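Marked as duplicate of an earlier ticket. Keeping the data here for the record.
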Amino acid sequence: MRLIELIFIFFAIAIAIASASKVRYDNFKVLKIKTKNVQHRKMIEKLAEKSRHFNVWHADANEVHIMVSPQKLMHLQNITRAYKLPFEVMRSNVQSLIDNEQAPLKSSDDLETFGWTRYYPLSAIESFLDDILAKYPGITSHIDIGTSYERRQIRGVKISYKEGNAGIFIESNIHAREWITSATATWFIQQLLTSTDTNVRKLAESYDWYIVPVLNVDGFVYTHEVNRMWRKTRQPVEGSPCIGADANRNSDSHWMENGGASSDPCSEFFGGTHPFSEPEIKALSEYVIRHRDRINIWLAFHSYSQVLLAPYGHTSEHTNNHDELMAVAKAYSDAVKALPYGTEYTYGTSATDMYTTSGSTRDWVYNEQGIRISYTIEFRDTGRFGFILPPVQILPHCQDTLTGILALTEEAKELGYLNPKYTV
């Protein structure tokens, strides 16, 4: 028997053992609840802070998407009726989405070829990065962000065809369950290095690219091995039975202001015990501080909602370059909508078009590091599949993203934001 076949057998056995201990979501439903005010939204979000039976998938000024267990479905429906909040069932069985998303390996070939027709664990993504670094030694270099709480290395790749380029940083999978983000980041790396399209070649060679496919490495591994719906980091919180913080509420920029994060360790939006309490975010901040003079644009890949969110998150006040931020976001949105898929992205500021946030990496690099073009890009979809986007949508979504980034960088260049900030 060939070695690769033996590896495949052992890998399949390991998957079977791991699957037996995974958290399951049989007959968990996702409800879309129309809210009338902020108080209603916070009331619904509060349910998820105190009970494993609820999990918030999305919230904005108009509606909340919340996953609920079969045991608590009636309780949630009673709340919506008591407050006269219209709702609809978006998904009737979350586990079926997970089962379809995580199709079993068909053959040992799946272990040998990294592609974009399925989602891969951290080990496979790291092997992909190793392969890229080995194939393109003159163009790529390893980015060592730092080490996670569970002592995993946070890795990335820099792609640079020539010295003196302006820089674009892509941060991905800061929220563990948002798998489409790291799938998109790895595909984008591949395109920057292999595409023969004239526009993509120009995009690749005109800028330096700093790309971190998986920032929240501990949480990402946990979503693959234990709980698909895990969002936070994995660092224990002293004095609490709950684990982890929302890594995108942990940066030292208006941290915990205006209700933009939660002080409850059991909340999905827990901002941490103090700014940069999470080692992953502390390490990221130190890397960015060292390289800020080489970074012109910051793109934080998230899912889901199909929206580009610019600063600010902590206040509805506008930045002094708000109009230009909206023009750049509009270029992305218009370009993606023109594709055959017709995917529609909206855009605005986080505080006005989603909800108040504080301590995000997007706002920290903008406010504290002088990176004046900074967005959270919330990927597909708008709730039909939510975080569990079917693998068949990976490549169409990636094509959307590439088209959007082509337009975004062109508009940013026209507005003068992609002039190098340093001299060779």
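See parent ticket for discussion. Residues 3-20 have pLDDT under 50 and may be disordered.
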